[in-house]
């Protein structure tokens, strides 16, 4: 979605309209702030987190007991009675493995639950954004925040939070036991670990920034690729494959550079941690070996070495978790930005007024409506018109006159800056958007066909429609031949964007979808633009029948459609400059005669030309 029906001149802003962005809450300070954000995301899964943490700590406690049993075995070597210590050691190993596996499963399931909740909220929010917001953000980049960014957050919530907590606790326990065994060796270990911690602290903020830029580069790449694939026929027709590949290639290179920077910082952090742990292990081995016999037993040295090696896993998990949290915060900041984009208000913009004694007879009325997509660039300048409950009303005018913008306002995609719209005499601000949209059906210029079957597309607005209703609209829109031609008929999959249908067939599918809702007001934007003469004549008859049942507002680009209208409004530069029937306007309106004359000059004739 990129702006709905905003296709008139000055319709779609190329960039934000100058309003200040929402306050940036995403740049929490590294460390406690980032960890607190990850913990907050798990707020609905606290029992699972507690169980996983308890199991992880229990497994770690079993692991911490293993060096003490090993020391007893070493010291008692050659004295017999080793069976029970050996069996105890095996039991400790098995218990640690089981508790660790169950705890890890609970964490992974919790992570999936967190992201499911986050994705549900994000998708629901994106589908309800203000229409102008879609013109300011690329849809593929928004999609990447639902897919790629949430995956990064899942890794952080499922692993980093518990790993940091348990890793710190287990490391503290191991260090305490090492201090009990040999304080001097522990001091040497502490020095090497402090050096590694200093390196990690220096790199933390840079890693988060690099990760955020990497996620943004991937989102931009997805947006550019979607742009090319969405217009592939145009790309092929203009032999632009190489140019598109080169342009997208620059996005790939940018993603590569940001990814390499992130990898470089992660590599330095991980290497610093590994070198510190391995270095401390070697120091203990050399210094401790020299001190055996003078300051301690061989069993003590073995136990100390086992604890030093045991530190590798929890300390590595802590350092790795720090990196994961920073990458997760970079991704979550992009998600948070999307969640703070302005939504379309769900309720009324003002409370209902007391019902008037007599309401104006009109399905839709515009009273002195002013509107512009950007400040200082008006599209509509005081438009007033009325659509009766029955009959066909047409809007004509040059491109950019404001015709499609009137449809956008009627569908409540935007709100007028001045003036008011009334539905059945009720001011639109006193109604919810849902109440307004339930009265209308819309067929716009894009004739959207979604991936799915022909049945899915026709019944999109009325999923519970029965076969008789679907057959009615298929016959009304002259789609019977399409149903018979397609393999599987109504069950045929139409492909991406209805690739198996012609432009006229897609338009008729969109018309059938709209008619199935039996609307009070039917909005048709260029209903015959893709139809041949036979289908156009059939549609004109359908429109006459529909006009007897509901209100029909048409943006007419062909005089064959215009001349059948009960009333025609001529727009120019955002104003209504004339109103009447086809014959009346030919006599009274110079602008209308000019539009009709232009068709004649193009050789189309007054019955089949286009009023632009």
From TrEMBL:
Subcellular location as annotated: Cell membrane
Name the record gives this protein: ABC transporter ATP-binding protein
Organism: Streptomyces luteosporeus
Entry-linked Pfam families: ABC_membrane (PF00664), ABC_tran (PF00005)
Positions of region (Disordered): 1-32
Transmembrane segments annotated in the record for this chain: 48-70, 82-107, 160-180, 186-207, 267-290, 302-325
InterPro entries from the UniProt entry: AAA+_ATPase (IPR003593), ABC1_TM_dom (IPR011527), ABC1_TM_sf (IPR036640), ABC_transporter-like_ATP-bd (IPR003439), ABC_transporter-like_CS (IPR017871), P-loop_NTPase (IPR027417), Type_1_exporter (IPR039421)
Annotated PROSITE patterns: ABC_TM1F, ABC_TRANSPORTER_1, ABC_TRANSPORTER_2
Chief place where the protein resides: membrane
Lineage, broadest ranks: Bacteria, Bacillati, Actinomycetota, Actinomycetes, Kitasatosporales
SUPFAM superfamilies in the record: ABC transporter transmembrane region, P-loop containing nucleoside triphosphate hydrolases
Topological type in the membrane: Multi-pass membrane protein
Keywords, comma-separated and alphabetical: ATP-binding, Membrane, Nucleotide-binding, Transmembrane, Transmembrane helix
């Amino acid at each position: 979605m990129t702006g709905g029906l905003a296709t008139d001149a000055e319709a779609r802003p190329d960039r934000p309209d100058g309003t200040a962005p929402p306050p940036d809450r995403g740049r929490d300070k590294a460390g406690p702030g980032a960890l607190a954000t990850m913990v907050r995301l798990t707020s609905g899964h606290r029992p699972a987190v507690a169980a996983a943490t308890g199991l992880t700590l229990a497994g770690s406690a079993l692991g911490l007991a293993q060096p003490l049993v090993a020391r007893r075995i070493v010291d008692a070597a050659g004295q017999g009675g080793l069976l029970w210590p050996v069996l105890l050691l095996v039991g400790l190993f098995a218990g640690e493995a089981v508790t660790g596996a169950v705890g890890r499963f609970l964490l992974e399931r919790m992570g999936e639950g967190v992201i499911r909740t986050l994705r549900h909220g994000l998708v629901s929010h994106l589908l309800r954004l203000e229409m102008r917001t879609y013109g300011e953000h690329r849809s593929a980049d928004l999609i990447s925040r639902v897919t790629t960014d949430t995956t990064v957050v899942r890794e952080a919530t499922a692993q980093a939070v518990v790993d940091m907590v348990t890793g710190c606790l287990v490391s503290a326990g191991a260090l305490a036991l090492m201090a009990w065994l040999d304080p001097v060796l522990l001091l040497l270990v502490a020095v090497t670990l402090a050096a590694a911690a200093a390196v990690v602290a220096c790199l933390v903020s840079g890693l988060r920034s690099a990760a955020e830029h990497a996620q943004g580069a991937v989102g931009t790449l997805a947006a550019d690729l979607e742009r090319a694939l969405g217009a592939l026929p145009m790309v092929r027709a203009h032999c632009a494959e190489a140019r598109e590949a080169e342009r997208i290639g620059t996005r790939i290179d940018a993603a590569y550079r940001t990814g390499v920077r992130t990898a470089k910082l992660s590599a330095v952090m991980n290497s610093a941690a590994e070198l510190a742990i391995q270095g401390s292990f070697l120091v203990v081995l050399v210094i401790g070996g020299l001190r055996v016999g003078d300051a301690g037993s061989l069993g003590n040295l073995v136990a100390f070495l086992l604890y030093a090696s045991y530190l590798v896993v929890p300390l590595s998990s802590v350092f790795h978790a720090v990196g994961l949290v920073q990458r997760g915060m970079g991704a979550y900041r992009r998600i948070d930005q999307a969640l703070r984009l302005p939504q379309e208000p769900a309720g009324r913009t003002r409370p209902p007024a007391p019902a008037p004694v007599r309401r104006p007879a009109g399905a839709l009325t515009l009273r002195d409506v002013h509107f512009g997509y950007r400040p200082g660039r008006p599209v509509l300048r005081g438009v007033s018109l009325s659509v009766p409950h029955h009959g066909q009303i047409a809007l004509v005018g040059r491109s950019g006159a404001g015709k499609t913008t009137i449809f956008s306002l009627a569908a409540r995609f935007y709100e007028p800056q001045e003036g008011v719209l009334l539905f059945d005499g009720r001011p639109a601000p006193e109604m919810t958007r849902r109440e307004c949209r339930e009265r209308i059906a819309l067929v716009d210029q894009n004739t959207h066909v979604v991936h799915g079957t022909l049945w899915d597309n026709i019944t999109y607005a009325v999923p519970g429609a029965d076969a008789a209703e679907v057959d009615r609209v298929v016959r009304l829109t002259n789609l019977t031949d399409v149903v018979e031609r397609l393999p599987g008929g109504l069950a045929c999959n139409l492909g991406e964007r209805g690739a198996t249908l012609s432009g006229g067939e897609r338009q008729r599918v969109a018309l059938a979808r709209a008619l199935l809702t039996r609307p009070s007001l039917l909005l048709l934007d260029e209903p015959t633009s893709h139809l041949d003469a036979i289908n156009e004549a059939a549609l004109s008859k359908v429109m006459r029948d529909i006009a007897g049942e509901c209100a029909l507002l048409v943006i007419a680009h062909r005089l064959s459609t215009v001349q059948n209208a009960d009333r025609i409004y001529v727009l120019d530069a955002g104003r209504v400059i004339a109103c009447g029937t086809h014959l009346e306007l030919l006599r009274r309106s110079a602008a209308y005669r000019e539009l009709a004359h232009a068709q004649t000059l193009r050789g189309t004739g007054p019955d089949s030309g286009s009023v632009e």
